[in-house]
Amino acid sequence: MARLPKLAGMESFIVNGEEEAWQLLEEIRANDFNTDKLAVIKGWPEFHFKFWLDSRGIALTAPIMQAMLEYQTSINRAFMLVIEGTAELKGISEEERKDFEVIFLARRGSTDLSFNAQEVISNFMEKAIGKLTGKQITMIVLSFAVLWAGASSFNAYLEHQLEIAKQEASGKQAKDILDAQKFASQAELKRLELVTQVVKAARGDDALIEAADEGKKALLKAASKVSETEVAGTRIAPEVAQRLSRNARSEPIVDLTTASYEVIRVDTDVKDGFRVRLRHTGSNELVFASVGDRIVSDKDRELIKRGEWEKKPITVRLKEIRRRGVLASAQIEEVLGITGEIKTASN
């Protein structure tokens, strides 16, 4: 049994499964991304990959072994991002590699591979204490568990890749194959939005989501080279995996948009010194926005402060970057004024 982390007397609570983790993430979001306890993972998450290889049913082929290596690399990258603030792996020590190493277990007579992430998460929590706040650790631990070892996030990833593949498919046969696929429910797609928001609240960006996608992409590449694959209970045929893996690096969609937002909070305790938490007055979408180089004047800052203190929406020009249909990052390019006062101010 994997050990629980040593938390130096900090108050904690046990999370016993994926559904419980999603429920806690929802509660954290509803509580304005605040929590006063550390989440401790116990007895899970265990993630399964199963590959069928025709007559070579128990062989670990090169593509499968490569997938495991790349999945491990994505885990290393995630923890380097969180603890050291960089995705660069050249500086990772042997001790850190060992701490964040996952052990893939192969059941005798099959290619049913699994790993339990509890030990890795425990090591991360011990290293993160003193570097991150308790609420950051909790948000990241829960997010890591559902991103790297959760069925819902994997299904949502497949569904987004499927939509891209459908758009790019040209032949009727390819379109028919893709149209017959369905990987995620609407609830699972909403869960991807939830964990993306929690990750951005904890870190200010979605780099952890991108790192998790690297591992998922590796599994798709392996799935395209075997007779059939099952990941976290989801079956993937090789011809489908091949088309989804082609699109695994979906291009981000960049857009400039002008809209009215409520100012939920101005965060000053972040690395870049200034970040604004906004909520779209029409769609209720939550936006974590950094500020562009242009936001240096007292007028801009005063408008943001007024929006926060007076509870008045502001009209903002945002540069948005979306990946897989989810808002990945946003940057304030210009504050046009308090919504409803702009026309008056111009007269």
How would you sum up this structure in a few lines?
By secondary structure, the chain is an alpha+beta fold. It is built from twelve helices and twelve strands. Helix content is 45%, strand content 23%.
Would you write up a description of this structure?
By secondary structure, this protein is of the alpha+beta class. It folds into two domains: 12-246, no CATH class; 253-346, Beta Barrel (OB fold (Dihydrolipoamide Acetyltransferase, E2P)). 45% of the residues lie in helices and 23% in strands. It contains twelve helices and twelve strands. The chain has helices at 18-30, 62-84, 94-99, 118-128, 134-149, 151-168, 172-179, 186-203, 207-223, 238-246, 298-309, 342-346, and strands spanning 12-15, 38-41, 46-52, 105-106, 112-116, 228-231, 234-236, 253-267, 275-280, 286-291, 314-323, 326-338. The strands form three sheets. The chain has a five-stranded antiparallel β-sheet with strand order 4-5-3-6-7. The longest helix is centred in the N-terminal third of the chain and has 23 residues, at 62-84. The relative contact order is 0.12.
